[in-house]
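Subject line: Sequence and fold of a protein, written as C-alpha cells
Area: Proteins and the way their chains fold up in space.
Start of record: The labelled sequence and C-alpha cell lines come straight after this line.
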Amino acid sequence: MRKWLLAAAAAAILAAPVMVPVSASADPMIIKFSHVVAPNTPKGQAALKFKELAEKYLPGKVTVEVYPNSQLFGDAKEMEALALGDVQFIATSLSKFGKYTHKTEVFDLPFMFKDMEAVDRFEQGKVGQSLLHAMENRNYLGLAYWHNGLSQMSANKPLIKPEDAKGLKFRIQQSDIIAASYAAVDANVQKLAFSEVYQALQVGTVNAQENTWSNIYSKKFYEVQSDFTESNGRVIDYMVLVNAKWWNGLPKDIQAGLSKAMKEATAVNNQIAEKLNADAKKKIMDSGKVKIHELTPAQHAAWVKAMHPVWAKFTDKIGKDIVDAAVASNNPKTN
C-alpha cells in the first residue's frame, strides 16, 4: 500500500503543470517610440539610445520599437496618438503645445536664449522642470527635455536685415508666437508638418523656413534653398512625453528602468546635439550648393529689435514669472 501511495504521489507531481514566474513567462511589454525626424539627428540618436538602454535594464520585460521619419504618425497626429495609446513615447517640438498650455510657449519667443547653455540652465532649473508637468491635467507628462539646437533661417535670397523677409512665405510649426514673429517683419507664414517641408519648398508652396542645422541637413533643405542665415533666433528643443495615466499605472520596476534609461539617453542627446549641428553646418557648406550668411552684431540686433515686440503680446498668457526665469537664464551668475 505504501509503495502504491508513493507511486501515485509521484505520478501526480509529474502530471501537475509547471508554475513559471509571471516575469519569466509573460511576453515583453511593447513600447512604441514615434518621432518625425531622421535617425541621424540628435533626437533620432537619442531615441535609439533609449531603446538600447531600456532593453538592457529591463531584459525580457520591455521591447522598444522606434519609428523615425513620421513612419507611424506625423506632426499633426502624434499628440492624439499618444492620448489614444497608439504609441507610448513621443519626443515632440516644444512649439506643439499651445492648445494644451500657454506656459511652454516661452520657448517660442524670438531671441529668448542667447545660446544653448542658457537653454540648459532654464530647462534644468526649477521653473523649467515644472513645465514638464504643465500638461499633466490633459494627461500628458513630460519626462525630459532633449536639445536640438537654435533655429537658422533660409530662403532663396539673402536674409540679412529684417526688411529682407518682407513678402516671403515661411513654413513654421504650429505656433501663434512664431507666426507673430514673422508678421512683425512683414512676412507670411504657412503651418506645415515637418514631413511636408521639403516638397513645399521644392514646388514653392513656401519659399522660406527656419530649423536647426541638423534638421536642415538630414532633410536636405539645402537642395531647395539657396541662402541660409545663422540667426540663432529660437530654440527648437523637444519634450519627451508619455501618457500620464499609462506611465503612472506601470509597475514600479518598469517605471524605474525606463526612467534610468531616459536619464542616460537625455545626457547622450544633449552631448551630441551641438556636435551634430556643427557637423551638419559644415556638410551644408561643403556641398557648395548654398551661401551661409553670418550676421554681424549690428545686423543680429536689428532682427532682435524687429521681433521683440512679440514678447509684450504673449507674456501675460505665458506668465511673467516664467518669462523672467527664462531671461535670467542668460546670465550664468543668476543660476
Q: What stands out?
A: Residues 1-25 have pLDDT under 50 and may be disordered. DSSP finds 14 helices and eleven strands in the chain.
